[in-house]
Amino acid sequence: MSGPSQEAIHFARIEALLDAALDLPEDERKHWLDTACANDPALHGEVTRLLDAMARSVGFLENPEDAVPVSDDMSGQRLGPWRLLQPTGQGGTGEVWLAERADGRFEQQVAVKLLHRWREDTSARLEREQALLARLDHPGIARLIDAGAMADGRPYMVMEYIAGRSLIEHCEQGALPLVARLALFLQVCDAVAYAHRHLVVHCDLKPQNILLRPGGRVALLDFGIARLIDVDLRAPTVSGAGIAQLTPWYAAPEQLSGAEPTTSADVYALGLILHELLTGQSPWGSKAGSGGLALLERTLVGPPPAPSTQAGTPSQARQLRGDLDAIVARALQPEPDARYASVEALRDDLARHLSRQPVHARGDAFFYRLGCTLRRHWLLAGVSSLLVLSVLAGSFSVMLAQRQTERERDAARTEALRAKGVRDALAHMFRDAGQRSDAAGALTAKQILQQAAARIDAHFSDDPATAAQVLHALGELHLYINDYAAAEPLLRNWLARESLVDDPDMAADVRFALAEALFRMGQAAEAVDLLHAAQSHWQGLPQRHAERLLTSRMLQSQLERQRGEIELGIQTLEASLPQRLQRSGEEDFETAALLTNLGAAYIQAGRIDEGIQTSQRAMRVWRSLHLEAGNDALNTLNNLAAAYFRRGELEQAAAHFEMALAIRRAAFGPSAATAALIGNQARMLQARGDVSAALELIEEAEPMALTHAGDASPLTLSLQVTRAELLLSSGAHAPASEVLDLLEARDDVPALLQLRLALSRTWLLRDSGEPVAASQHLQSVRAMADQLGPQAQPLRAQIEAMAASLR
Questions:
Q1: Would you state the pLDDT for residue 690?
Q2: Could you give the CA distance from residue 338 to residue 354 in angstroms, rounded to a whole number?
């Protein structure tokens, strides 16, 4: 691509300077222009003459007979069913107003887009934006709700109102870690890619056009200069007026030179946004803050610097160096053909980086790809390494056995062969994952494990003992990715082969793992029995199994707390903490896990301050271990968010929920833990009164919980109770009643959820015009709350509010 012509650059300078000057009060323009054009008197003279002409005319370069100014004060004015409330923002061509539904049908706030000045060509542009948005229906794109014309013919557009911060503000103010920032950016890519699939190019992507919904999802705004890819809607080209409308420091070089924008222009803008997201600053440095002239001259200074060179600390630079530098550089190539071929390709490379796979931006160097493979499968590689070591240990045992008896030698050989079988099974997993990654896209962790599990019987039909050991390994790996429903049959299958394995230690491990899975699936009674069996075996040799006994106290405490013995559960953990510190010290994975559980127990008991302090202590350990984005650390973040929520500090709670959810979505995908976080975020929105956004999250979380935790799990039941509460809040009494009927018919609903159900039933009776029945039902609600004690504390205010409404 040839560079911008001198004529195009000169014209663009004038347009950019005029645009900037017009945003200033009239009495400040001359001084600003003197400074901006100090080194170019000719340019200064041209801009001054145009400004003077503007001052002498009704409208700048407009015919006063066909230009209709927008009223300065439109507060209270009706536009169809909408009433304007107050302006919320403006740009060079239009302004946006906060409005509300005024026809009495229901309550709703919206954003209404108007124009500063209206004439036929600008009206056509707004109508074109309406047509473009009508094609787009995606959670990452602000919805078009309505459109119409004012009494004098001026068009308006009604958009979904999003009261959120911009992408960069959200990340900087919340001090989001790198993984969380990348997770949000992947959402942006999804939205832009969706628009491209519907043949729409945005043309003006920038952080200000990307807001965060209350639920932590991104929303893309402002398709004011967007274009259709497949047809010419007779929109003005991006040269001339178009350059004045776009934002120069997020524009691709070809946009500044007047060329027709393509999807590649959006890829370039995303590269600039990604750079700013990673470093907290513009890649253009001072050029980004020196007015339109400097912004346009950036095309002459060469490519932007690598993000790692603008990182704030050496540690941050190390995180960015390599993959992320290469990804940003690929997106910001000056030649469109040298960039990523699509937004999906950019998104895919970032997803590959997050999953520690080789990124395409860095080529196919063998050792680079090998290193990525080892980092990506660190858990499985670690298991494999341990198994290799066990094989070596088994071989050594064989040598010793030869000096003892033939029987011992044969037993050692058998054990070595079984260990080799497990190692081979895991090696097959690596091989198949690599072949699939090269051929048809990367497999998820769950897909890898499912494929391995499906082949067990075929591969080990003549060796059931080895098959059992592979089942054990796969079951525990499913637990690690929070897929309890998939772990359960594997572990039960192992127990069915217990007599073939004849390994009491492994049998205890399997029973403990199955107990963990069943606890999270709502099958607490069987989980208690399995845990007791495992602990009984370990207590036979307490010194040998001290670590397993100590680790099992966390599950023991959870089961105690679930059956209502909260203080006993806390005592179990408090007694375990000194032992853990003695064995492992403060900065240890198991110490952090124990502190996380203890913090959760304190919060459950209503000891919020202790819960926050203990959870913060756990987070300090996770950070010291560089595991702050790991699965267990995300549980700690969730606990902290829940504690702030219980204490009424909704902003703190929202920040922690959003950070944990963004990281978990990107790093772990759909799982029971992800569903739990989404459910917590929904309750956060419920407390804020944002019922529609909360219902959207519940619609996402409930099927995820059913898949990964089962229909009897406390998680799934909790999400269903929340759905009933939200339906009641929205006035949908019939659907709410259906959910309540189904849940009240069950006998496996935990006590605290039963209390929420009973309160919801009281609510439904009151709103259905049955105050006497509601009052009687409220008495049983109070009795349940008194029986639960501290657990019921978060619901006390709601109970009293219900009582007051029935007086």
A1: 87
A2: 23
